[in-house]
Design brief:
This protein is α+β, with helices and mostly antiparallel strands. The chain is built from 32 helices and twelve strands. The strands form three sheets. Strands 4, 5, 6, 7, 8, 9, 11 and 12 form an eight-stranded antiparallel β-sheet that branches. It has a two-stranded antiparallel ribbon with strand order 1-2. Strands 3-10 form a two-stranded parallel ribbon. InterPro entries: MdtP/NodT-like.
Length: 1114
């Protein structure tokens, strides 16, 4: 502030001077506004941020300010410079998710949309929608067949048929009739085998595999298939039934199927609350209540299923979970379970009339966050992150103060004026005096470490009623002072030097904290996905064990087929799996609340996470596990061909299993790669599958023909029943062979057409379905099938009406039909199959070789699985040592400690100061405030020396500085070693995780086959398998599935940790690292050391005259 003082001798200007002084005083008293100071501080700090980024351009991204995002939970809408206190009343649900740049999390699961999208992927072999689609409210849902999509076991019906155990031919027939358990995606509704005598000797017709309706992760399909089939021990009285028929207990199946009733779901689209959901499940009928009425529905169910011409006869079926057991699950757990399509399928079986639109409100309607959503919300609401930004801001504010000392600035105090009025009376004399002292001063710390001071002092004394009347005394003084320390100037620079370096340290700490925050949130997110995965696996494990318990109880109560102890074991395992499921749901809720706290959201806020990432991970796992199954099947097939080549049936069946699993692998590989078109490998596998189906039908027909010839050519005339049954079996097998041949020819035409299109895209392709020859053959097959059905009905009618004298004639009516079918079979097969036995072996060997070659070709693909950890340890360690921010700060600390040695050594020396002062005054004979003259001035020069006679404290400080430097040097070495160790340890853990993942995949594949094997052996009472063996296999399988998911996610997290340890994570503005989606393990390019560390030991403040020793350190 400048105060203008003029001589009061000019009375005309007196009022002008007073007015000017009054205005200046008002301006000085008011000062600037709060907003001005706040915005000025923000501008200064932002300028420092930009400057430091320019100095460390390779390392530092844009530094964030401390302004709170308006979308934040702790954003204060009140004025920043005069904030209002928040309302003291507690509030719940006071915050809603804002709009996010990373996507809208307010998306619900659209079941109808998902189903329609999935149905588009069903190929032409899928049965019509009316045969498998919407349930009829007036009918019970049809059970589902387990078709020939996968063949883990080959079981001979002769093993369970007492009359066939001694017949080698009958045992060989069973080799072509395996009981199979396919992936879940291949289940389709079929009618179970009836007790119709016409089907007693009929070969099992396995329906065409239905493609996957929706993307089913590996654990979904494997757990589904291990939980879907009942466990039934064979009855001695039913020993002559087919093997597949023995797997279904009619009473228990009807009891389970008829239990579901219409689900009374709310009509509106709002989410169902816990009370309504509990009431809904509690009103469901219990399984025990249906026991008394289970027999009649079973008969009706069989009759209804027998009338379904669209479904093949025979097979296993999925029994719905009784609604009573849904009610026993905690209400908070059901919405979490229904997140998965596999569990929704179970729910639809229990409530067949429930549509997707009715199930959708039962799902959680909370916002579903992806990992980018989580990171964006964390940067918006994290209180810890805001605190870290404020720490950096405070450090930068300190630097602004230190820099200000080196500017020419007004002094903090002593710049102003005063009015001192004195009224005195002495011996009756009155004296009134007005004194107006005014001072203004500026100072600056110079680049040499000296101090400069310039001050102006003005004194105005007005005397009223004095001896001389009115008198004025006006005088001013100018002071210029310079002081310089000769030996300790580095000490003067130290505050600024350390403040400059502290900003860099704090900026690096903030950037690394953001990366560590991402790693922490990613770990929480992926662990939540793992918990979700555990819920799905535990749900299917619970369903599997519950089915085993219900089936065992039914068998124990109604037939006494199994001992009570096995029923208790089943029940104990069901309770264990239910407890595990409930625990997983509770653990999920706790993890979600912890995630909210880490983000900064209120714990009561409804929140969910998107499962799209989990679906991608499980699809990748499915590909890896299916590949493992393919390799295991291939190894088994090669062992079979090498050791038992004469057993053609086993070779063909093993090759069929291998092709089926290869088809699954190719399907999942296309899903992972995002390929919608049919690949060449899929075409080749489909053709090989058709060739195997033709060979298998040929082998089965030849075996049935040999059995028929032997039984009809005996010494005694054959019984009409035997002639009829063997003729029906043979006709049916030959018709199946003709159908397989027609299908193979149609497929070959399609391949030829596709190759023709590649050669000549403009050519009009021929439709193989419209081919006249194939069309005619297909019509003949349909005609002969109708004739066969008519003949069977005539036989059944004669049996029912007890016209036994007609059986002899009826049994011979099939001979002409057999001859016609035989001619059709030869015409359809033609040159596809050889006539000689040796040529058949050559065809089988050729087909097996082509399959093995195709498997090797697919196995060499780089799609799916986890990358090899082929990383050089030394290169990874060097990359970390070059780029780590904490190591850079540690180097800076070492330089700071070294600089303290120099400063402490300076204190040991003498203190030599020089000082120069000059004072100018106004003339004393005139009252002029600015009339300075050298005639009235003063100059002072001084030299001060403080000898180091007593430096005990400084000596101790110096020795301490030396110790601190050595400690800092050891700390740097330790930090480097810790970084090297962390890199090596993370690489070891990464390799371990990959190995553990491969082991888990192999264990899952083995456990899958073990579950299937033990279940079938338990069903057929083969060997010494008991319920405990199946339960142990089921537990091992569940654990293996959990291990696959856990090891995959652990591998991802270890990879993220490795990249963090190498400081290779680069975040986008929303705090997300895009490299998390790429599971490759390629090391980032290591920059040259001086590019990544342009100032290894930090920078000094510019324009300061440091000593040579200090400059040499930096």
């Amino acid at each position: 502030m400048t105060v203008l003082i003029i001589s009061f001798t000019n009375l005309r200007s007196r009022w002008f001077v007073l007015g000017t002084m009054l205005g200046a005083v008002c301006l000085s008293v008011g000062g600037c506004t709060r907003k001005h100071y706040r915005t000025q501080a923000d501008c200064d700090v932002e300028a420092i941020y930009q400057e430091k980024r320019a100095e460390e351009a390779w390392n530092l991204p844009r530094l964030p300010g401390i302004q709170v995002d308006p979308r934040s939970r702790f954003f204060d809408p009140s004025p920043e410079d005069c904030p209002a206190l928040p309302p003291p009343e507690p509030r719940l649900h006071g915050y809603t998710l804002p709009q996010l740049a990373t996507g809208d999390p307010r998306q619900s699961v659209d079941l109808a949309a998902d189903e329609s999208a999935d149905l588009e992927s069903v190929d032409e072999t899928t049965e019509p929608e009316e045969t498998r689609g919407e349930s009829n409210p007036d009918t019970t849902p049809q059970p589902e067949l387990i078709p020939a999509g996968d063949r883990p076991e080959l079981i001979d019906p002769g093993l369970i048929d007492p009359d066939a155990q001694g017949t080698a031919e009958q045992s060989q027939i069973g080799a072509h009739q395996p009981i199979i358990v396919p992936p879940y995606s291949e289940f389709k509704s079929v009618a179970p085998s009836s007790s119709d005598p016409s089907s007693a000797g009929k070969p099992k017709q396995v329906g065409a595999a239905t493609p996957s309706v929706g993307t089913m992760p590996v654990a979904d399909s494997f757990v589904q298939q291990t939980s879907a089939v009942q466990l039934v021990a064979p009855d001695a009285a039913d020993g002559g039934q087919p093997a597949a028929e023995l797997a279904v207990n009619e009473d228990a199946a009807a009891e389970q199927v008829d239990a579901p009733e219409e689900l009374a779901l709310p009509a509106d689209s709002e989410a169902v609350d816990s009370d309504s959901l509990g009431q809904l499940l509690q009103n469901a009928p219990s399984a025990d209540a249906d026991d008394a009425t289970s027999s009649e529905p079973a008969v009706a169910d069989d009759e209804r299923l027998e009338d379904s011409d669209a479904q093949p006869t025979g097979g296993l079926r999925i029994v719905p979970i009784p609604p009573e057991y849904w009610g026993r699950i905690p209400q908070t757990c059901i919405p979490r379970m229904l997140e998965f399509e596999s569990v929704r399928e179970e729910f639809r079986r229990s409530y067949p009339n429930a549509t997707d639109a009715e199930i959708e409100p039962m799902l959680s309607d909370a916002p579903r966050l992806t990992l980018p959503n989580v990171m964006e919300l964390t940067l918006i609401n994290s209180r810890e992150y805001q605190t870290r930004k404020e720490i950096l801001y405070r450090v930068a504010l300190r630097l602004t103060r230190e820099r200000y000392d080196f500017w020419l600035r007004p002094t903090r105090r002593g710049n102003g004026t005063a009015l001192n009025y004195t009224h005195s009376r002495f011996r009756g004399l009155t004296n009134n005096r007005l004194a107006i002292p005014t001072n203004a001063a500026v100072t600056q710390t110079l680049c040499t470490g000296g101090q400069f001071l310039a001050s102006f002092a003005n004194s105005v004394v007005l005397t009223f009623n004095g001896p001389q009347g009115f008198a004025a005394d006006v005088g001013s003084e100018l002071l210029f002072d310079f002081q310089q320390s000769l030996l300790q100037r580095d000490i003067v620079f130290e505050s600024l030097t350390q403040a400059e370096r502290d900003v860099i340290y704090a900026a690096r700490d903030l950037i690394r904290y953001r990366r560590e925050l991402f790693v922490d949130m990613a770990g929480r997110y992926y662990n939540l996905l793992l918990t979700y995965r555990a819920i799905e696996i535990s749900s299917q494990d619970y369903f599997s064990n519950l089915r085993a318990f219900l089936q065992g109880r039914a068998e124990y109560l109604k037939a006494g087929r199994i001992p009570r102890i096995q029923v208790d074991q089943f029940e104990q395992n069901a309770l264990r799996s239910q407890s595990s499921l409930v625990g997983d749901c509770n653990r999920l809720e706790t993890s979600l609340d912890r995630l909210k706290l880490a983000i900064g959201l209120p714990p009561e806020m409804p929140l969910n996470i998107s499962l799209s990432e989990l679906e991608a991970l499980t699809t990748s796992d499915e590909l890896t596990v299916t590949r493992q199954l393919v390799q295991r099947t291939k190894t088994s097939l090669l062992e079979t061909t090498a050791g038992r080549w004469s057993e053609r049936d086993s070779v063909v069946n093993g090759a069929t299993v291998l092709v089926d699993r290869l088809m699954d692998t190719l399907r999942v590989r296309n899903e992972v790669s995002g390929i919608d078109e049919v690949t060449d490998e899929q075409r080749a596998a489909t053709q090989l599958e058709s060739i195997l189906a033709l060979i298998e039908s040929r082998l089965q027909a030849d075996q049935l023909d040999a059995i028929r010839r032997r039984e009809l050519s005996g010494d005694l005339p054959p019984e009409p029943m035997i002639r009829f049954a063997r003729t029906v079996d043979l006709i049916d097998a030959k018709l199946a062979q003709a159908e397989a041949a027609i299908g193979l020819r149609a497929l070959m035409r399609q391949v030829e057409s596709a190759e023709s299109d590649l050669r000549d895209p403009d050519a009009v392709p021929a439709d193989p379905v419209k081919d006249e020859g194939l069309e005619q053959l297909s019509q003949q097959v349909e005609t002969y099938n109708r004739e066969l059905d008519q003949w069977i009905r005539q036989w059944e009618t004669a049996i029912e009406k007890r016209r036994l004298d007609e059986l002899e004639t009826l049994s011979k009516r099939g001979d002409p039909l057999l001859q016609q079918v035989d001619r059709l079979d030869r015409e359809a097969a033609g040159d596809l199959l050889p006539d000689q036995e040796g040529e058949m072996d050559e065809l089988i060997a050729k087909t097996v070789k082509e399959i093995v070659d195709l498997v090797d070709q697919v196995a060499g693909s780089d799609v799916g699985g986890l990358d090899e950890v082929d990383i050089d340890d030394d290169e990874a360690m060097l990359t970390a040592l070059v780029q780590r921010y904490d190591l850079m700060n540690q180097r800076g600390d070492l330089a700071d400690a070294r600089r303290q040695i120099k400063l402490a050594a300076d204190d040991l020396r003498s203190i030599i100061d020089i000082r120069a002062t000059h004072i100018l005054r106004t003339r004393s004979d005139v009252n002029r405030a600015f009339d300075f003259t050298f005639d009235d001035s003063e100059t002072r020069l001084s030299f001060a020396l403080d000898t180091p006679l007593n430096r005990r404290i400084e000596r101790n400080a110096y020795r301490t500085a030396l110790i601190n430097y050595n400690a800092a040097r050891r700390a740097l070495i330790d930090q480097e070693d810790q970084i090297k160790f962390s890199i090596r340890e993370r690489l070891r853990q990464l390799r371990l995780r990959r190995t553990q993942y491969e082991i888990a995949v192999a264990s899952a594949a083995l456990a899958y086959e073990r579950v299937v094997s033990t279940r079938l052996q338990l069903q057929l009472a083969v060997g010494n398998v008991v319920a405990r063996d199946f339960l142990e296999a089921q537990q091992d399988f569940t654990g293996a599935l959990n291990s696959v998911a856990r090891e995959h996610i652990n591998f991802i997290l270890e990879r993220i940790d490795l990249f963090l340890a190498m400081e290779a994570i680069r975040l986008d503005p929303n705090g997300y690292w895009e490299g998390v989606d790429d599971e490759q393990l390629e090391l980032p390019l290591r920059p040259p050391f001086l590019e990544a560390n342009p100032n290894p030991y930090g920078r000094l403040a510019p324009c300061l005259m440091y000593s040579d020793e200090i400059r040499s350190l930096h």
